[in-house]
């Protein structure tokens, strides 16, 4: 196997790594690499921070092991290789009435990444996390192929397990039945924080998410748009054409006045009485995928996403975070508020019942200070932050937020005693250090 | 009904992208190559993407005994039979310099094997009065260069063969597209020094599909390689022989 020396990064581009990557196109090549030169597996690197980087080390790029290798329509079970992008599965199978039960905000995420981060979607309060729909999976631990079934400690350590229990080769996913490739989407304005929260709480739609204007302050703090959706047989609306950000944008592109103006326009495009539209499936699930390489809008320095979840009774903590964000003038247009259910599949899974808030910030000292404050507020509210987004947290913070970390580290050590699979994130947060 | 396509060397990244684009339109696919396990995975994938037929078939450029069964299987399908040749191999020139016997394999993989197979397929296309042959050559076949002239020579031979086959099949309603890719992001080029303007296999597949629809004769993909190669072909030999490109 040839190795290619590359500089690469996570989606946020704030942390860069340099190392050798192999990109096997055949199963036998992957098996040989795992047996002879074990290294962490990475996919499309849609995790924002350093979860998918291994600076000064090796990594296995899984994106060419991307085949759907079997489907049982009676059971709705799809067998698929880890490098397969979720958007590809949706595109191929939705017209025939099947869809992964959980889809994150980008269709470029791979099956392996979705498992390693136990991702969630806009339907988490009904459908739970991605890992709860994994029927079984196959790992390569060194030279050994290991089948992993739900309920075992190895399964619990693998779902959300950051790829530390072995290279995920393939998985069997329980798909859900859908009437077609269209979504009926209802958008309504929320005038301020409590209005927003009440609308999310009231919604009985299978998919529900709130966009927040994180620049709004005072009486309009927390204003936004509540988006509710259900599956529809169509007719399928035409899909929006993809465009590409060809260059790193200058710092001005997402400066405070630009963001304020953009957010006001974005809010006002929804009529006061709301609107209901029929949308193509990818336009609803993966709205930002239409703009390829949109992370370059943040320029060379990259950006951070802060995402936390707090218990149902702690929504007030999110309001305080939002106040701090609005006062900072650092927010970007991307800010999302969601209700979360209790569903989670693994020891290090992010989801828990409550409220989750996600906000992007251009990278810089002020943003990093603000994120540190937000992390402390999340911890004080007995919440936690999402490792798929994190590039900044300290080991002690994560230890306090993830009570099952010790049990997980034990399983990871059993699966990979030499620590071959450690990534930059695992080292930074000392996740595999004995408690 | 859409064509049935024989895809030779189907496990390559370019072939995979091409097969998937055909599968999405419900084509029939006979996925041929040496690695049966990989071909079986690809066949499943193509079926799930919409292929009305996708079967793994044994094919080895260096073993002509594998050819007849593949052609017979294709001929059992109704409608036009088409073929796309992605098979090939590119050992480093230095390895060939050290062991000249490797030349036989290079010629077999890139020229003699595929040509012999297409020669056996030609009567089927003529008999049905329809069908397309896609032959994947290389820009390396346009002029012999220090870095890989044995590979280039085999591809040049294949280009000449495809030109003649086009002349023959065109009279009977068939068509031949010669494809000359530049650098493509595949396992063959991964980590090689000196790669630039590397194209995605999906982009190459889309170019090939469009060339088939428009009945183009010879395409470069991506398109700008036509101009790069025009320059390289135009350099006078007294100068060219001193260059290291």
UniProtKB/TrEMBL annotation, chain A:
What InterPro entries does the entry give?
Answer: FAD-bd_PCMH, FAD-bd_PCMH-like_sf, FAD-bd_PCMH_sub2, FAD_lactone_oxidase-like, Oxid_FAD_bind_N
Domain of life according to the entry: Bacteria
Record-level Gene Ontology MF annotations: FAD binding; oxidoreductase activity, acting on the CH-OH group of donors, oxygen as acceptor
- FAD-binding PCMH-type domain residues are 14-178
Q: Which UniProt keywords apply?
A: FAD, Flavoprotein
Spans through the membrane: none
PANTHER family the UniProt entry points to: D-ARABINONO-1,4-LACTONE OXIDASE, L-GULONOLACTONE OXIDASE
Query: How is this protein named in the record?
Result: FAD-binding oxidoreductase
- According to its UniProt entry, this protein's organism is Phaeovulum veldkampii DSM 11550
Q: State the organism's lineage.
A: Bacteria, Pseudomonadati, Pseudomonadota, Alphaproteobacteria, Rhodobacterales
UniProtKB/TrEMBL annotation, chain B:
Give the residue spans that cross the bilayer.
none
Which Gene Ontology molecular-function terms are recorded?
oxidoreductase activity
Write out the GO cellular component annotations: membrane
Please provide the record's keywords in A-Z order. Answer: Oxidoreductase
The answer to whether UniProt assigns keyword Oxidoreductase to this entry is: yes
Pfam families this protein is in?
A: adh_short
Q: Which family does it belong to?
A: Belongs to the short-chain dehydrogenases/reductases (SDR) family.
Q: What is this protein called?
A: Short-chain dehydrogenase
What is the scientific name of the source organism? Phaeovulum veldkampii DSM 11550
The organism's lineage? Bacteria, Pseudomonadati, Pseudomonadota, Alphaproteobacteria, Rhodobacterales
């Amino acid at each position: 196997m040839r190795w290619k020396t590359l500089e690469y990064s996570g989606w946020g581009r704030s942390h860069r790594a340099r190392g050798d990557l192999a990109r096997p196109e055949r199963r036998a090549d992957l098996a040989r690499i795992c047996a002879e030169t074990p290294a962490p597996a990475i996919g499309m690197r849609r995790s924002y921070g350093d979860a998918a980087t291994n600076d000064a080390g090796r990594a296995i790029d899984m994106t060419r092991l991307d085949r759907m290798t079997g489907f049982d329509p009676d059971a709705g079970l799809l067998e698929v290789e880890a490098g397969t992008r979720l958007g590809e599965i949706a595109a191929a199978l939705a017209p025939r009435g099947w869809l992964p039960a959980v889809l994150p905000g980008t269709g470029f995420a791979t099956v392996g990444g979705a498992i390693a981060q136990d991702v969630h979607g806009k339907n988490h309060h009904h459908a739970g996390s991605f890992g709860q729909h994994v029927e079984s999976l196959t790992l390569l631990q060194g030279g050994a192929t290991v089948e992993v079934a739900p309920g075992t400690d190895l399964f619990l350590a693998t779902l959300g397990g950051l790829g530390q229990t072995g290279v995920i080769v393939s998985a069997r996913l329980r798909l859900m039945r859908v009437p077609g490739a269209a979504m009926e989407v209802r958008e309504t304005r929320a005038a301020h924080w409590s209005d927003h929260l009440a609308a999310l709480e009231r919604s009985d739609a299978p998919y529900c998410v709130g966009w927040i204007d994180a620049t709004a302050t005072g009486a309009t703090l927390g204003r936004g748009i509540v988006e509710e959706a259900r599956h529809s047989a169509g007719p399928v609306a035409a899909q929006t054409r993809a465009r590409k950000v060809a260059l790193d944008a200058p710092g001005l592109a997402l400066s405070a006045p630009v963001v304020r103006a953009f957010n006001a326009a974005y809010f006002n495009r929804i009529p006061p009485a709301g609107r209901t539209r029929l949308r193509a499936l990818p336009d609803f699930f993966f709205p930002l995928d239409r703009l390829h390489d949109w992370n370059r809008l943040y320029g060379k320095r990259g950006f951070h996403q802060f995402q936390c979840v707090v218990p149902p009774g702690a929504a007030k903590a999110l309001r305080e975070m939002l106040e701090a964000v609005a006062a900072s003038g650092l927010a970007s247009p991307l800010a999302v508020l969601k209700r979360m259910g209790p569903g989670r599949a693994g020891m290090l899974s992010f989801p828990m019942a409550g409220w989750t808030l996600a906000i992007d910030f251009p990278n810089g000292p002020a943003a990093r200070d603000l994120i540190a404050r937000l992390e402390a507020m999340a911890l004080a509210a007995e919440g936690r932050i999402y490792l798929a987004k994190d590039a900044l947290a300290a080991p002690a913070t994560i230890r306090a937020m993830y009570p099952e970390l010790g049990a997980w580290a034990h399983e990871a050590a059993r699966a990979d005693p030499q620590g071959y699979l450690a990534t930059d994130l695992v080292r930074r947060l000392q996740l595999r250090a004995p408690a | 009904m859409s064509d049935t396509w024989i895809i030779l060397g189907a496990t390559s990244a370019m072939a995979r992208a091409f097969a998937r684009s055909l599968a999405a339109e419900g084509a029939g696919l006979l996925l041929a190559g040496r690695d049966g396990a990989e071909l079986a995975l690809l066949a499943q994938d193509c079926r799930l993407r919409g292929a009305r037929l996708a079967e793994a078939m044994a094919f080895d450029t260096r073993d002509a005994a594998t050819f007849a069964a593949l052609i017979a299987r294709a001929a059992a399908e109704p409608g036009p039979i088409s073929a796309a040749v992605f098979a090939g191999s590119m050992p480093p020139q230095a390895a060939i310099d050290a062991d000249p016997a490797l030349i036989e394999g290079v010629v077999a993989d890139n020229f003699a094997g595929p040509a012999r197979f297409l020669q056996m397929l030609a009567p089927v296309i003529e008999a049905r009065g329809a069908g397309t042959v896609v032959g994947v050559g290389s820009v390396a076949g346009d002029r012999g260069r220090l870095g890989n002239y044995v590979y280039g020579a085999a591809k040049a031979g294949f280009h000449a063969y495809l030109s003649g086959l086009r002349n023959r099949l065109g009279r009977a309603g068939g068509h031949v597209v010669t494809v000359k890719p530049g650098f493509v992001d595949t396992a063959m080029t991964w980590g090689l020094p000196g790669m630039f303007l590397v194209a995605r296999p999906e982009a190459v597949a889309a170019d090939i599909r469009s060339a088939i629809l428009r009945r183009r004769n010879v395409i470069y993909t991506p398109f700008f390689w036509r101009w790069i190669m025009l320059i390289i072909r135009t350099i006078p030999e007294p100068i060219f022989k001193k260059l290291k490109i």
